[in-house]
Amino acid sequence: MSPIAFNGTAVEQNEEGFLVDPSVWNEELAVVLAKAEEGLDQLTDDHWSVIRFIRNHFNESGNAPMVRSMCKGTGVPLKRIYELFPSGPAKGACKLAGLPKPDGCV
Amino acid sequence: MPELDELESRLDALVEGDFQRGLEVFRSKLKEAEASYLNSCVHCGLCASSCHYHRADATLENVPAHKLDVIAAVFKRNFTAMGRVAPGLVGARTFDREMAKAWVDAVFGRCSLCGRCSINCTIGIAMPRIFRAARAALGAMGLTPSDLQATVDNSLQHGNNMAITQEDWVETVQWIEEELQMEVDDPEAKLPLDKKGAKILFTVNPREPKFFPLSLQASAKVFWAAKEDWTLSSDPGWDLTNYGLFNCKDDEAGAITQNLVDAMERLGCKTLVIGECGHGYGAARWEGPEWLQKSYPFEIKSILELMDDYLREGRIHVDPSKNTVPVTLHDPCNLVRHGGICEAQRRVLRKSVTTFTEMTPNRAENFCCGGGGGQLSMARYKNRRIQSGGVKAGQIKDTGAKIVVAPCHNCIDQLMELNKEYKLNVQIKTVAEMVADAIVTTA
């Protein structure tokens, strides 16, 4: 996958659109990823609430949170999370939060 | 591309001993019949159109017979008289850096081990067996794609392939129990954990608790309606997946299978029930005893067979008018073509929905979704995975269905991506989710 242009730099993604280097992530980049990867023109407060929760969890523990934690930590109901991120919690929300691709059947 | 750069550097680091070790492992994995298959292909070409990779991209490298040739060339050079004496005459090739790279591309990069070429082969060459032996050889040379290996390593180190902690797993189970109690309005509806002596130990795909727990809730609702005596395990042994089937390192695959055997013994259950997962069923039901070199002292079933039993015995009742959106069914390769579970899911669906349309072709002749064989975990081959999945996308479109039922979480993830890429505009569900929606409790 070609790197995406962002603030005059080239941000590298893997073939599936996850950041190669999660440490380059910031909220401006999340907006670019949202458009490029999920077709989202705008991120609502609920989107941000989930994205920030995932990012904080990743910064603290180095992995993606359970969807249970996402719901509990943000107050956003499960079915709403699926609506907010069309590709789901992993390939949608975690990708926009700049996490590496989770292992397993995803 | 970082993953391919990494492969190049690993290929650069190979020394003579690595090639020898690869050859030894390859030879050790071949039984007589498979070795003879390596000299049997007559290049009739029938396999080309059987392969979803080739149908989506008609290049020579995607013809199964060509992939087999890449493997056979090395076999002939090292293990046949003609190949040793006159390699040029029989197309034999030395196992070197270039051929190792060609092997990786053929068996990891262009094959989901779906086996459709094999049943359409005039000679019946067992391609998946040979390609698995080649994957094992490459593994012994340190050439297993790192993201595929990471999924196996998670299982070995954490007891599940997503490295979920016991605390997180248990908390999610308790949460889903509360959700189920609200859904069915029964405080006695349970997701039992570590219930010793329960009849059934139910196992799930870690993807369910981690990201998609509604399928677990649906399975639990079916057990509740059937008044089943069941349990989940809080320790390793709750995860039904086994990516050892795909990295083809039998010792690792066996160690993962042992988690299920240990949980059955610890809890004293009679039947191990595998949730909706193709490779997990194939690994546990058919390969596990081979890896462990012993028979299981318990019964093993797919949840599809169990739901079929419940409906036939009248233990649950369904009202198809609760599912009126047109439905089609995907046949996961490891469950159907390799696994032999073919009709149970159809009987269950016909009773649970009003409009069920088969894909063409179906059952043993189904096309792989493109996500099998560990493809879903190997990021470097994403574009080929989506392209080869175009065959399945076309099948789905032709049915006109708005719900695709897939009894496999691996397939479901791939189908979700195909849904987006090919604008299918469908919902993707498990069989248990359809049954759970149709359940009526006042029979």
Brief synopsis:
Chain A is mainly α and 106 residues long. Chain A is built from five helices and two strands, in the order ββααααα.
Give a structural overview.
The complex is a heterodimer of chains A (106) and B (443). Chain A is mainly alpha-helical. Chain A has helices spanning 27-38, 45-61, 67-74, 78-84, 88-96, and strands spanning 4-6, 9-11. A two-stranded antiparallel sheet of chain A has the order 1-2. The longest helix of chain A is centred in the middle third of the chain and has 17 residues, at 45-61. Chain A starts with a strand and ends in a 10-residue tail after the last helix. In chain B, strand 6 (327-329), helix 20 and strand 7 form a beta-alpha-beta unit. Chain B is globular. Chain B has three domains: 2-143, Fumarate Reductase Iron-sulfur Protein, Chain B, domain 2 (Orthogonal Bundle), CATH 1.10.1060; 149-310, no CATH class; 316-440, AF0625-like (Rossmann fold). The relative contact order of chain B is 0.11. The A-B interface holds A 1, 12, 14-16, 18, 20, 63-64, 66-69, 78, 86-91, 101-106 and B 1-3, 147, 150-151, 154, 161-164, 168, 171-172, 175, 205-207, 209-214, 241, 277, 376-377, 379-383, 409-410, 413, 416-417, 420.
Ordered list of secondary-structure elements with their pairings:
The complex is a heterodimer of chains A (106) and B (443).
Chain A: E1 4-6, E2 9-11, H1 27-38, H2 45-61, H3 67-74, H4 78-84, H5 88-96
Antiparallel strand pairs in A: 1-2
Helix pairs in contact in A: 2-3
Chain B: H1 2-12, H2 16-29, H3 32-37, H4 46-50, H5 52-56, H6 64-79, H7 81-85, H8 87-90, H9 97-108, H10 116-119, H11 127-140, H12 146-158, H13 166-184, E1 200-203, H14 207-210, H15 214-225, E2 230-231, H16 244-247, H17 250-267, E3 271-274, H18 278-292, E4 299-302, H19 303-313, E5 317-318, E6 327-329, H20 344-352, E7 356-357, H21 382-388, H22 390-399, E8 403-405, H23 409-421, E9 427-429, H24 431-438, E10 439-440
Parallel strand pairs in B: 1-2, 1-3, 3-4, 6-7, 6-8, 8-9
Antiparallel strand pairs in B: 5-10
Helix pairs in contact in B: 2-11, 6-9, 9-11, 13-15, 15-24, 17-18, 19-20, 20-24
